[in-house]
Amino acid sequence: MASDAFGAHVPPVTHDHLSSALGLRRPGVTESLIRFEEHGLIRETRGLLQIDERRCLEERACSCYKLIASTYGSSESGISGNEPVS
C-alpha cells in the first residue's frame, strides 16, 4: 500500500512506520520483511524498501489488499481538482 501511495517501487518507509500504520509490533514487521527478503520479493536498506517482485508480493498478501487498493484507486480517480467540492 505504501508503494501504491508513493507511486514507486521504493517507498521510503521504516519498520517503525510500517508497524504503526499496520497496528503491529515492530519485531513482527521485521520478521515478515526478513522472510520477504529471503524469498527475493523485496530488498531493504536503511529507511528504504525496494519491491523487486511486486506480483508475487501481492499474491502473498491477504485478499483485502485487492479490495483496499481498488477502493483507494477509485476514490483517487474521482478527484480531479476541477470538480466542485461539496
Describe the structure.
With 86 residues, this protein is mainly alpha-helical. 55% of the residues lie in helices and 9% in strands. The protein has 5 helices and 2 strands. It has helices at residues 2-6, 15-22, 26-38, 54-60, 64-77, and strands at residues 42-45, 48-51. A hairpin with a 2-residue loop joins strand 1 and strand 2. Residues 78-86 have low confidence and may be disordered.
What characteristics describe this protein?
86 residues, mainly alpha, Arc Repressor Mutant, subunit A, two-stranded antiparallel sheet, 5 helices, 2 strands, 9% strand, disordered C terminus
| Mean pLDDT, all residues | 79
Give the radius of gyration.
15 Å
User: What is the number of beta strands?
Assistant: 2
Envelope shape: globular
Structural class: mainly alpha
Straight-line N-to-C gap: 28 Å
- Write the CATH fold name: Arc Repressor Mutant, subunit A
Low-confidence stretches: 78-86
Task: Briefly say what this structure is.
This protein is mainly alpha-helical. 55% of the residues lie in helices and 9% in strands.
SSE arrangement:
Blueprint: H1 2-6, H2 15-22, H3 26-38, E1 42-45, E2 48-51, H4 54-60, H5 64-77
Antiparallel strand pairs: 1-2
Helix pairs in contact: 2-3
